[in-house]
Design goal:
Residues 12-48 form the ChsH2 rubredoxin-like zinc ribbon domain. The protein is mostly beta strands and 126 residues long. It has one domain (9-123). It contains 1 helix and 8 strands, in the order αββββββββ. The strands form 2 sheets. The protein has a 5-stranded antiparallel sheet, with no helix packed on it. A 3-stranded antiparallel sheet has the order 2-1-3, with helices on one face. The longest helix has 7 residues, at 9-15. The protein is globular, with a radius of gyration of 15 Å. The model has no long low-confidence stretch (mean pLDDT 95).
């Protein structure tokens, strides 16, 4: 089963090169993530994927201690990361850290079997 579709293909294609991109509306300039058909600010349909810095801060997080399915070894950290450019990404936090809200983080990449990479975030100090 593929994780991408017509709306998300640009995002996933960039991950093959370990580039983090988010949608930007050509009409109003709003940046958004996750990819959607329409701009969440003006309803415009002319969206493009633009690169972002990969820097952000932890907005919220939780440590999962019980695996919801086989192959997900706990503990792991699920978080909302607010990108420097504004949008929020739901992601995993990796690395050895005393996790806290507002902790500066940077993007890192977890390889997927098909050549794409999953963006995860680690402490800026790592």
């Amino acid at each position: 089963m593929s994780m991408s579709d017509e709306v998300t293909e640009g995002f996933w294609a960039a991950t093959r090169e370990r580039r983090l991109v988010i949608q930007s509306c050509r009409a109003c300039g709003r940046r958004q993530h996750y990819p959607r058909w329409l701009c969440t600010a003006c309803g415009g349909a002319e969206l493009e994927f633009l690169p972002v810095s990969g820097l952000g801060v932890v907005d919220s997080f939780t440590v999962v201690h019980r695996a919801p399915a086989p192959g997900l070894a706990p503990p792991y950290v699920v978080a909302r990361v607010r990108l420097a450019e504004g949008p929020v990404m739901l992601t995993n936090l990796v690395g050895d850290a005393d996790w806290a809200c507002d902790l500066p983080v940077r993007v890192d990449w977890r390889p997927l079997p098909d050549g794409r990479h999953l963006p995860v975030f680690r402490p800026m100090k790592d």
